[in-house]
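Protein modeling request. Please complete all fields; requests missing the sequence field cannot be processed.
Requester role: graduate student
Desired output: 3D structure, C-alpha cell encoding
Chains: 1
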Amino acid sequence: MDLTRLSLRTRVFLFFAALALGNLVALVAGLWFGFTRLGDPELLNAMVIGGAVAGFVILGLIAWIWFLFDENVAKPIERLSGMLRARTTAEIEGDMDADIARYLGDLAPAAASVTRHLSETRNALTEAVQRETTRLAQEKERLEALLSDVPVGVLLCTADHQLAFYNGQAVELLGSAHAPGLDRRVFDYLNQPPIAHAYDRLLATEDPDAASDLLCSTKAEGRVLAARMRLLSEGEDHHLSARPGYVLTLRDVSGDMASHAQREQLMDELFDRIRRPAAALQSLIGVLTADDGPAPGPERDRVREAANSEAHHLSAAIHEFFERHEANRADWWPLAMIRASDLGQAVAARVTAEGGAILPVTAGLMLRCEGFEMVALLAGLVRKLTGRRGFRLEITEDGPGALIALEWEGAPVPISELERWLDQPLDVGLEDVTGHRVLTTHAAEIWPEKLGDTRARLCIPLREARHVTKRPKPVPRAVVYDFELLARERVAEIADTPLTDLTYVVFDTETTGLLPTEGDEIVQIAAVRIVNGRRIDTEVFDTLVDPKRSIPPGSTEVHGISNAMVEGAPDIAKVGRDFHRFAEGAVLIAHNAPFDMEFLHRKEVAIGERFDHPILDTVLLSAVVFGQSESHTLDALTHRLGITIPEEARHTAIGDTVATADAFLKMLPALQARGLRTFGELVAELRKHGRLIKDLNG
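Delivered output (698 residues):
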C-alpha cells in the first residue's frame, strides 16, 4: 500500500493506531509471560483485570495524545499547506493567520514571511511587467476600439469552426437569445452548409489570398447575411498537417433584398400597366390621323373619347408610380437619426454666426435626416429671406414623421423665387449639392404658407421620426476574443483533457424552497462562461423563471425574488432549453452541485434535454485544496481566497455565480500545483472526499 497517497491526517491516525496496537500487544505478551512463569492459576483473573484496566488507560492516553496531535499539528499543517499553495498560485491579498499553527513553533511565522516576501516580489514583478507592457495595452485598446466600430460583424473561427473572436455588430446580426460564446461552434448561430462549403472551397484553392463571397442565414431569425470568408495566414507555429482558421465578415442584406424586390416589382408593374394603354393610345391616334380614318361624326367622337380615356389612365398610372417611387426613395439612401433639438441648435448657431437670429422651438423627437445638409438648407433659406425678421424654427410631430416649419414676420415667398433658390448650390463645399438635391435625398418637398396677415412660413415634411426615450437601446461595442483558441489541439476524451483547455459554465439557482421532492421549483438561473482560464464578462445567462406556484415569504427574504417579479417570466421548459444551449459542450460548476442539479434533472422531460454534462463542485475542490477539516461554505471559501461578494449580490443567482467562478479560477492553479492537471485526475481526487458531498460524474 502506497501511504504517500493518503492524507497527512490519515497517516497520523494510522501511526497512533499502530502505536496503540503495539502497546496492547506488548501488554498482553508481558502478562502472558508473567503468568506462565508464576504458574499460579489464582492470579489469572487479577492479571486479566489489571491488563484490561492498563489497556484502557493506554488506549485512552494514546487517543488523547492523537487528538491533541491531530488538532494542533496535523490539522494546522494541512490548513497551512492549503493556504501556502493558494497564496503561491493565486493572487490573494492579506497576511496569513499565524494562530492556526501556534503550536508549531516558528513554522507559521516563517510561512507568513515567505508568502509576504512572495507577494512583494510578485507585486514588484507585476509593476515591472506592467511598465513594459503599457504600450502594448494601449495598442490593444486602440485595436479593440477600431474593431468595435467596424460597421460589419466580424467572426474569427478556428479550423473546427469554434469562435475565437466576435465584435458587437456580430452579436446584433446573429440575433440569438444569448450572445455568442467563445469556443462555441459558429453553426450554433449560422446555418452550416454555405459556410462549410465555402471553407472547403478555399482550402482546395491553396491560395492564401483567396476570399469567398457567400450568402448565409441566421438560425434564430432566418436573417439573410452577405458574408466574405478569408483563411488565416499560416504563422510560424502553424503545423503543416493542421488546417487554418478563417475570418468571416457579415453584413445584413435582408433589407437590401426586400428593397430590391420592391423596386423590381414596381418596375414590372410599371411596364405592364403603361405598355397596354400606351399601345392602345398609339393605335387610336393612328386611326384619328389616318387618311381613311372616320369622318367627323359620332364614330370619330367615340374614337376621340377612347383616346382621352386611355390618356387619362396613362397619366394616372404615371402619377401613381411617381408617388410610390418618391415614397420609397428615402430608403435607398442611408440617413441617421438625430435629435430635433440638436438640429434646431445647429441651425441657430449657423444663423447667429452669419449675423442673424432665429428661435428654435423643437419637440422631443428623433429625426431621420442628413443633419449637415439639412442645416445648410435651412440656414441658406434664412440668408435668402432678406428684409424679413422674427425668424422662428419649429419642429413638430406630424403623423409618423415630423414637420419642419421656418417662420418669419413679413411677406411670403413666391414659388418661382423659391424654386430659383433651391436650384442654387448650398454652402457645403460641393457645387452639386442644391436644395432640390437635399429634398430628393429625404424624399421630401417644400411649400410656402401664409400665417395670418403678418407672418409666413416654409414647410418641409420628414417621413420618419420617433419620440426621444430616456434609455435608448445601447449600441454593442465590446469585442470578445482569445486568439490562443486558434492553436489549441482538442483531446477526444475529456478525462485526458487539461483543466486549462476545458470550457466551464458556472451556474447557480434560486428556488422556492429546499425540497424539490415536495414541489419546490426554480425561480432564477444565472450562469457565466470560463474559457481558456478566464471569465468572459459579456457571456452571461441571467433570467427569472415562473415557478407556476407561490413563492413562500421565507424564501423571498433570502433571495429577494417575489411573486410579482416572476409574473410573466418564461417557464422552466423554455429557460431550461436556453440554459442547455448556453452550457452545451462545457463542464458545469456549482457550489453544492447536487442541490442545483436535482432541480434540473427533475425537469428534463419538460425541457426536452438531458443535463449529462461533466460536473465539478467547488465544495469538493475546496476540500482538496484546504483539507476536509475547514468550513466549505461559499462565504468561508471566498473569505479564504480574498473574494468579496457585495452584500446586495449575496444570495442572488448572479452574485453567487460570479463569486463561485472567481473562487474556481483562484483554486485552479493550486490544483495544478498538486499535480492534478487533467479532468480525470481531478475527478479521481474529488472522489476521495465523498463523505462531504457526492461527486456527480458517473
